[in-house]
Design goal:
TTHA0281-like; TA_system_antitoxin; TTHA1013/TTHA0281-like; 1 helix; alpha+beta; 3-stranded antiparallel beta sheet; 3 strands
């Protein structure tokens, strides 16, 4: 499933890999050896996050698009 959540991808020296985070889904993140691999992996994790939330009866945030940080 393709979702419309904002994804932030950055390089982590500590992990020696790209990290993809989904700020609207707490704890939802993935890594990869390349920018593309991190993006592919995070889409899998988003689907798993949503599936788990449904199973547990937890609310699933609606995608808001670009987040604004103050």
């Amino acid at each position: 499933m393709k979702t419309k959540y904002e994804i932030i991808i950055y390089w982590s020296e500590t992990d020696n890999s790209f990290i993809a985070e989904v700020p609207e889904l707490p704890g939802c993140m993935a890594d990869g050896e390349s920018h593309q691999m991190a993006l592919e992996n995070v889409h899998i994790v988003i689907d798993q996050w949503i599936e788990t939330a449904k199973e547990l009866g937890r609310p699933i945030p609606e995608p808001k698009g670009k987040l604004i940080f103050a």
